[in-house]
Description:
The structure holds two protein chains of two kinds.
Chain A: H1 2-7, H2 10-40, H3 44-58, H4 62-76, H5 89-118, H6 123-131, H7 136-166, H8 178-188, H9 192-221
Chain B: E1 22-33, E2 36-47, E3 51-55, H1 62-68, E4 77-82, E5 85-86, H2 92-99, E6 101-104, H3 116-126, H4 132-145, H5 161-173, E7 179-183, H6 191-206, E8 210-214, H7 218-224, E9 227-232, E10 235-240, H8 242-247, H9 252-262
Parallel strand pairs in B: 3-8, 3-9, 6-7, 7-8
Antiparallel strand pairs in B: 1-2, 1-4, 4-5, 9-10
Amino acid sequence: MLDILEKYNILEAFWMTIRLTFFSAIGALVIGTVLAIMRVSPVAVLRRLGAFYVNTVRNTPLTLIMFFSLAGVGIVLEVSLVDQSSSTSLRDNAIRWAIVALAVYHAAFVCEAIRSGFNTVPLGQAEAARSIGLTFGQSLREVILPQAFRGAIAPLGSVLIALTKNTTVASVIGVAEASALMKVIIENETASVAVFLVFALGFVILTLPVGVFFTSLSRRLAVKR
Amino acid sequence: MDDVNPDTAAPSDRTPDTPRDPMVVIDGVNKHFGDLHVLRDINLTVGKGEVVVVLGPSGSGKSTLCRAINRLETIESGTISIDGKTLPEEGKPLAQLRADVGMVFQSFNLFAHKTIRDNVTLGPVKVRKKSKSEADQQATDLLKRVGVEAQADKYPAQLSGGQQQRVAIARSLAMGPKVMLFDEPTSALDPEMVNEVLDVMVGLAKEGMTMIVVTHEMGFARKAADRVVFMADGQIVEIGTPQEFFTAPKSDRAKDFLGKILTH
């Protein structure tokens, strides 16, 4: 068993998982926040656009989005995210499209988590903000969003855990993250159950602290009313 | 702020319906909530430095009227103007006008994630563009004035209702408002905390602040009001000085209302 693990660079595979998670989490947080603001904005067109995005993306399998990103947009429409002349352009292009797909997909869930956070903020907070002369944008930034985020921390933690595990879908477009390496090892070696358990343990090590951290964060930052 | 002093200006000198120097003019205002006609052709002019107390049974539209004055409730017809400026539609001009209109809510609505001091400085810093140190100094003065300076670094949930409401008044005053609206400011308070809030309000009235106060506190109306407006079923039924209204109400509706609340 140990010799199998020594033959393959498991840590590097998990490092790719962590990088995919990190960058797509940031992307999902940004897009999701914008979507959540759209969904509570006073402009009906924005509200509908936000709802359309969430309902479309949330109900499409991630594998399809992943495949569509690289194959559809990246290859057929020839939208490249890398410098074509670089020697690792194929590999990097796949990684970047994977990050885009993961961010776009999880943004829908981030949006809904933040929207549930908005619902924890009483209407009176917005009224008070407006009554002292804050504009719509200022009310959002200074009063509503800070409270909404605090109310959304626990569900955002769940989204981040799901995102970490969903990075395994990036293997369908050839990104060498943890699950891709696992498939390779299982194919080439014996002791497949042991290998599987090692990788499963790797994901638990990644996600368990995230859950613990977010739970304690949501307790510490809770807005007392 | 000091051009009119309610102590010396005998209320009876004033013509009830047309104050000399108007601050808030409400003209032919109507509003429905579904089938309910909550504001029926409301006309009211509030003069500079005047304290107007709006009384009436619940559901009479008095809170809606108060909230309509800074457009927290939209109106369907008629106009509302403040210091000569008609209330704008949404957007920057409305925000600017709201900065000049203080509002104190029944449920305090202090910003729950900010300290007491930051509650008071937010508006001056973000809207009035004051420096943080200047706003802090002003907040300290205002919190002292309403008697909660010792709580400046606490969060709203750590304060009693009466303290929170006094902070809410300080938050409004920090904007240097031309007029203050009070929407049942003592209705959510425990009885022993009502007076500490009313005392602050009486002090404001004495200093000549223009105030529109929706309340059930008859004592405050007698003590501080220049005029009492009695509303029922979305209409202004009667306007008069506190003395006229409480001793000799003209309408049956007002007699009935006073009869119900003053017998205990």
